[in-house]
Design goal:
Phosphatase 2c, domain 1; alpha+beta; three-stranded mixed β-sheet
């Protein structure tokens, strides 16, 4: 079938939840791709005062997106900057840490397990053979101990993934983004982008790409990738004279911190499958309409006998 299907898979997988601070909902659909390459993470109780939400849009396979969904929030939580209250720094370090963790024998093995095909990670199929140095024998993965094996020199996956993450702590919202997934907030019905789509033709991205030895052709990095920032994509990160932040493609995220107020209604995190079809404002209008209908329906059933009806219900604190 190739990369695309003859007809899209439109089955949706949805879930929702809440705690005493917020409510959230999430949904995914495979669409035209031959495999589902996206992933997400929702941890409303990352700790007792912090919530974590992330979307990961994979390309070249599902392994990197699933790796991020499994491990990125863990790295944020355990970083010393997080303990010190510096969430932005812990996010930046954790995005870069994903690339580090996906190298070597252990990185190769984990990606092979998470991916739909082993050869999407390494280029060929081999048995899963490894020799743990420490921690692994006791099922202790916290230290991400190195391993010896046939892929000890694995430089990382050529597949990749965007990462757009929102962390909410009290009235503070911290957004980290690498790639073209997007975070949008509705403030009194007005859409405000809290992330930037990292496309190669942006001046800042273009400057870094060219200085690192890359080029841009038909809007793509080296004529291939239509993103300027992503986790994975190791083939674009091989300049050993440059730090991770200055590679042709970098996983280093932009950080945007805002103070939430009573005018903030809901937050949307979504992959470019949405943004290719709708503008930020169009999606905010759609979500707001759906939330209003749901709340009005709930109120009409619960409070009809009291003669109460809200023509313009408040949708504050709803997280989508």
């Amino acid at each position: 079938m190739g990369v695309y299907l003859s007809t899209p898979k439109t089955e949706k997988f949805s879930d929702d939840g809440e705690n005493d601070r917020l409510r959230y909902g999430m949904s995914s659909m495979q669409g035209w791709r031959s495999t589902m390459e996206d992933a997400h993470a929702a941890y409303p109780d990352l700790d007792n005062m912090t919530s974590f939400f992330g979307v990961y849009d994979g390309h070249g396979g599902q392994a990197v997106a699933k790796f991020c969904a499994k491990y990125l929030h863990q790295q944020v939580l355990k970083h010393e900057a997080y303990s010190a209250g510096d969430i932005g720094t812990s996010l930046q370090k954790s995005f870069l840490r994903m690339d580090e963790m996906m190298r070597g024998q252990r990185g190769w093995r984990e990606l092979a397990v998470l991916g739909d095909k082993i050869d999407q990670v390494s280029g060929f199929i081999e048995e899963l053979i490894w020799s743990p140095r420490s921690g692994e024998a006791n099922k202790n993965f916290d230290d991400w101990s190195s391993e010896e094996g046939p892929h000890s020199d694995f430089h990382g996956p050529n597949a990749g993934s965007t990462a757009c993450v929102a962390i909410i702590r009290n009235k503070q919202l911290i957004v980290a983004n690498a790639g073209d997934s997007r975070c949008v907030i509705s403030r009194k019905g007005q859409a405000y982008n809290l992330s930037k789509d990292h496309k190669p033709d942006l001046e800042l991205e273009k400057d870094r790409i060219l200085k690192a030895g890359g080029f841009i052709q038909v809007g793509r990095v080296n004529g291939s990738l239509n993103l300027a920032r992503a986790i994975g994509d190791a083939e674009f990160k091989q300049n050993k004279t440059l730090p991770a932040e200055r590679q042709i493609v970098t996983a280093f995220p932009d950080i945007n911190t805002v103070e939430l107020c009573d005018d903030d209604e809901f937050l949307v995190l979504a992959c470019d499958g949405i943004w290719d079809c709708m503008s930020s404002q169009q999606l905010v209008d759609y979500v707001r309409e759906q939330l209003c209908r749901k709340i009005n329906s709930q109120l009409s059933a619960r409070e009809y006998s009291k003669g109460v009806w809200l023509q313009r219900p408040v949708v504050r604190d709803a997280i989508t």
